[in-house]
Amino acid sequence: METQSEHKNKHRTMNFEQYASDGNRFINEVALELETDHNRAARITRAVLHAIRDRIPPSDAVQFAQGLPMALKAIFIDRYDISKTPIVIRNKEEFIEFVRGKDGLAAVTDFPDRESVINALKAVFFVLEFNMSIGQVEQIKKMLNIELLSLIE
After folding, report:
1. What is the pTM of this model?
2. Using one digit for the tens of pLDDT, what is the confidence trace for 77-96?
3. Domain-embedded: residue 31
C-alpha cells in the first residue's frame, strides 16, 4: 500500500500560495521599475503581456507562456482569442495605441502619454528578462520588427 508521502512524490503538488507569491513578486518588480503602486503595475503588466501575446502567433504565445510564473500564465491567457491573432502591427505609434487599448478605461491614468507606454514596455521586458530564460524573451523580441523592438531596447 502506498503511503501518503509516496503518493505526494508521484504527483506534482499545487501550491497556490507560492503561485500567488511568485506573481506578486513579479508585479512588485514592475512596480519598482516604474515607481508606482502594485495595482497600477498589475494593470500595466497585463496590458503589455496581452499586447505582446496578440502580436505573435498563437503557438509562440503558448510557448512563451510556459516560462511565465503560474499566476502570470493565467493573466497572459485570460480572454485570449487565438482566432484573432496574430495582429499585424509594424508601426511604433500603432503599437503604443494597441498597448494603451489593452488597459481599457484605466489607460487614461496608467498611460497618460506615449512615454508612459514606452516606459511600461521597457519595465515589463526588463522584469521578464530577469525572471525568464534569456532565450525565451529573445525569441519574442525577434518576432517584433526593428521599429517595435526599438520601443523596448
Report:
1. 0.87
2. 999 999 999 999 989 999 99
3. no
